[in-house]
Amino acid sequence: MSHTTRARIAATTALSAGVLSLIATTVLQWSVQPAGANPTPADVAAQFPAVWSVMGLLAVFGPVLWLAAVPAMRMPGRGGVLTAVGAGVTGLGLAAGIAHLALFFGLFGTIAAAGVGEADAARLGAGSDADLLTGVLLYVFLVAFAVGPILLTLGLRISRIVAVWVPVAALVTAVASMLGGPIAGAVQLIALAATWAPVAVAILRGARSLPAAVAVGATTTA
């Protein structure tokens, strides 16, 4: 097995683990139903400390693996520049997301572990929401991780490495992430998988191994 093949396998594994960690974290969030009229993240952390810890670890270290796969997302071809830009923006979003989620899960985990009262927990949460660094990290994460995959998959499509529906799935993922509710959440996870599975296959195969007229997940006429 060549070094290039091993690198592709490692990148594909890291990307797949990152995507699966996001899906698992979301499903875990759906599974916990804290008591109380208006439950907060502090309530979830206090009532489900083990689940909160697992979600925090997945939310932080899954994107770390995902970020490690970003350099392998660059592909040669007509859309190479757009693909590289999309990969870079995606990487920026992942990096900001790692920092934001570490702050988020760490803060409310600490509040729960310290047994802080409800009123004080609410003030700490409000203070975190008003903090400049926390806000910048959140919005960079939301914007970059929405726009980056769209640019990335458009570049891969221009290079005929993925099917035409892959950038559409990336767009659906971005739109669904801005909406609330279980239906939008389910659509987001399905679209997320539909976006990144072809990217993982493209990394594993390598652009040079693809016939010129055939794209991953597409027919010869796509």
Mean pLDDT: 88
Query: What oligomeric arrangement do these chains adopt?
Result: single chain
Give me the Rg, rounded. Answer: 19 Å
Largest beta-sheet characterization: none
First CA to last CA: what distance? 32 Å
N to C succession of SSEs: HHHHHHHH
- The portion of residues forming beta strands comes to under 5%
Structural domain tally: 1
What is the overall number of helices?
8
How many beta strands in the DSSP annotation?
0
Shape: elongated
What does this structure look like?
This protein has 222 residues and is mainly alpha-helical. The protein has helices spanning 3-31, 41-47, 49-68, 80-114, 118-130, 132-158, 165-178, 182-205. The protein has one domain. It contains 8 helices and no strands.
Quick description:
The protein has 222 residues and is mostly helical.
List keywords for this structure.
single chain; mainly alpha
Question: In terms of topology, how is this protein built?
Answer:
Blueprint (H helix, E strand, L loop, with lengths): L2 H29 L9 H7 L1 H20 L11 H35 L3 H13 L1 H27 L6 H14 L3 H24 L17
Helix pairs in contact: 1-3, 1-8, 2-3, 2-4, 3-4, 4-5, 4-6, 6-7, 7-8
